Amino acid sequence: MSQKARMILTLLLLTLCLLGSLGFGRFSFGAILPFMKDDLMFTYTQTGFVASSIFFGYLLSAFFSGYFVLRFTAKVVIIASLCLASLGMSLLAMSSHFWISFFGSLIMGIGSGGANIPALGVVAKWFAPKKRGLAMGIVNSGSGLGIVFSGVFVPVMIGIDTVNGWRFSWIVLACLILLIAILVLAFLKKHPQEVGIHSNGEERNQTSDHTFLATSSVYKNSIVWHIGFTYFLWGFSYLVFSTFIVDYLMNDIGFTKGVAGQYFAIGGFISIFSGFIWGAISDKIGRIQALTIVYGYQCILLLLMSLTYHPTLLLVEVILYGIALWAVPTITVTSVSEYVEPALAPIALGFLTLFFGVGQFFSPIVTGILIDQTNSYYSAFVASAIAVCVGCFASWALSMRLSRKSERVISSNINRVDN
């Protein structure tokens, strides 16, 4: 197989990993949620805790996945995690009360994070920095594909069986994830050197452009902490859209389940392109600068959605939000992999995802409580917008800090040359 064909196959397999671990393992929950909630008669607070169990599982896997990758290899961890996600979905399909749903979601979350983080680490090994943003964007499009599939597939299943359609949806998704695990087992190579090729875009004797950064320890790297803080804020913010948008459109706006599913699918389809659009932009203008723009952009759109009830305007806002939906994880994961030593990338990704996981864990709980207290999604959208607004200013501050540091290094090098 040629180098180009192997690169394309690797991107396809990693995109399928994201489709299974995030697209099916996390974001299908938003499409299934309203029907599961009604059938099991959950309150919004209970629903929030079930959703948070997914993200608590994701948090656990984020903490341990980097170490498991170093011990067992990324491929083994990805396959085992996809199988766990499938098991969790099977439990959800059989759920009859809160605790089965809680633990099924927890297992699904562990599998979701356990497959996602190593898959992104494999991208860092196959693609050198100058092409890594675009590659990360392509792989992250798997999440959008999952939203599209769920937004179309779940309403069809509900139409076939209004009582058990959501259960059949979980079963089908569980089977699809197992199929992805088999494909990964058969074809994925965790490193290009296994097939005798170099990373796409790699330059021999390449040296780091970030020599001024502390890379000896991930946990002492203040830049990683700063990026992690903004990732925490986005983890809190984006769930209002990805998890609750279908329920919001049905209950607050009055859409039918079919129309709400279509809006969800349209947003998901547009989001397929968001990662590699913004990944490519970050390759050009810089990672942190791109993050600053994305956070501000999402803040504005979330505020607009909270104030809009006209179907056409809502559709436009959903499309515009979808354009930037996966920009943050694409840029964030790419950026942090450039501020630590390559050998520490799996640890750094796991550590960074801890911040993201904490934000995800608290978001559904807070959202559920706000909705139960106010009988409206308005306060949830505002809280989500505030979070990314803070992220915008934090990213801008980091950009200024890195710019000043870079200027000092350049000035110091010039002085050494002059002397």
From TrEMBL:
PROSITE patterns per record: MFS
Chief place of localization: membrane
Membrane-crossing segments per the record: 49-70, 77-100, 106-127, 134-158, 170-188, 229-250, 262-281, 293-312, 318-340, 347-371, 377-398
Membrane protein topology class: Multi-pass membrane protein
Compartments it resides in: Cell membrane
Major facilitator superfamily (MFS) profile domain span: 9-403
Keyword annotations from UniProtKB, A to Z: Membrane, Transmembrane, Transmembrane helix, Transport
Domain of life: Bacteria
Pfam families in alphabetical order: MFS_1 (PF07690)
Protein's name in the database: MFS transporter
Organism: Bacillus salitolerans
